[in-house]
Amino acid sequence: MTIKQKPADEVWAAFEREAKPTSRQLEQFQQFITYMLECNQLFNLTAITDLPGVVRNHLLDSLALARFMDPQSITMMADIGTGAGFPAIPLKIMYPQLKIVLIEVTRKKQEFLANVITMLGLEDVEIYGLDWRTFLRTTEYPIDCFVTRAALDDLELIRMFRPACRYNNATLVYWASKHWEPHPKVKPFITRIEPYRLGSKDRRLVFMSLQPAAK
After folding, report:
1. b/e string for 92-120 if b means 16 or more Cβ within 10 A?
2. C-beta separation of 113 from 102 below 8 A
3. What angle do CA 73, 55, 151 make, to 5 degrees?
4. Cα dihedral across residues 5, 6, 7, 11: positive or negative
5. How far is CA 175 from CA 34, 63, 163, 209, in A?
6. pLDDT confidence of 3, banded at 50, 70, 90?
7. What is the pLDDT of residue 4?
8. Is cis: bond before 87, omega within 30 of 0?
9. Which residue ranges make up each domain of the chain?
10. How far apart are CA 102 and CA 173, in angstroms?
11. What strand order describes the sheet that includes 99-103?
C-alpha cells in the first residue's frame, strides 16, 4: 500500500506555524532541507528521506532546545558529530547571533556543511574536522554550550568535564530517546532531564554540567 505524502507547501506551512520563523529564515530552512535531500545519496546524510519526517525529526527536534534553554544566552555553541548539521544549523538559522563550531570528522560531510554555510550566507560558523578527543586537547574556543544528538557514547562525551579540560565549565545538552539510560559514571553530571513530544515519539533533552559533581 502506498502512503500518500503531504504536499510540500502544507508541510512547510505547518512548520511555519509551529516554529514561527521570519520569511527569510523559512527560505533558509527550505534551501537547507532541499539541498540536503538532493545530496543525500552522495554524502550519506540521513536515513529519513520524506519531507514531513525530515522537518519533524531534524528541524523541529533541533529547535526543541529553545523550549528549555534560551539560545540568546549562549555565547558560542559547538555541535559534536554534527553530521548534516543537526542540531546546530537549524539553531543558527533561527538564532543568527549564535557563534557555532561544527565538529565533524567525515570529509564528505565537511564538504556538505561548507556548501550549506556558503549557500545560506551564514556567518560565525566554523567547521572543525578532527575527532572529539583531539578537539578537547587542542582547541581554546569560548564555548559555553555543547550539543549533540547522540553522536557519541555518553561516557565519551563527559571527557569534557575532566579537571584539566578547558571546557569543563560548559554545559552539555544531549538529545536522547525515551528509553535512554545513562552510564553510571555519567549520572553525577546530569543536572536535569526535559521530556518533550515529537510527533508520536517521546524524546528527552539531557542537560549535563559539573554542578552536581560539586555538591
Report:
1. bbbbeebbbbbbbeeeebbebbeebbeeb
2. yes
3. 65
4. negative
5. 24, 11, 24, 15
6. very low
7. 52
8. yes
9. 56-214
10. 15
11. 125-128, 99-103, 76-80, 145-148, 171-177, 201-208, 190-198
- CB under 8 Å, gap of 24 or more: what pairs does 25-29 form? 25/93, 25/94, 28/93, 28/120, 29/59, 29/90, 29/93
Average the pLDDT over 9-23 and give the result.
97
Q: Of 129, 133, 189, 184, nearest to 156 (Cα)?
A: 133
For residues 164-188, give the mean pLDDT.
95
At residue 182 the predicted structure's pLDDT band, cuts being 50, 70 and 90, is: very high
Closest alpha carbon to 191 in 179, 175, 208:
208
Q: What kind of fold does domain 56-214 have according to CATH? A: Rossmann fold (3.40.50)
Q: Name which residue leads in pLDDT, 151 or 123.
A: 123
Give the alpha-carbon dihedral of 115, 121, 123, 125, to 10 degrees: -20
Distant-in-sequence, close-in-space partners of 28: CB < 8 Å, separation ≥ 6 = 93, 120
Calculate what percentage of the chain has a pLDDT beyond 70. 96
Compute the distance between CA of residue 130 and CA of residue 99 in angstroms, rounded to an integer.
19
Residue 176 CB contacts under 8 Å (≥ 6 apart), including other chains: 150, 193, 203, 204, 205, 206
> In 3-state terms, the chain is what percent helix, strand and coil (to 5)?
45, 20, 35
Give how far Cα 135 sits from Cα of 26, 125, 180, Å: 32, 16, 26
Place of cell 560565525: 124
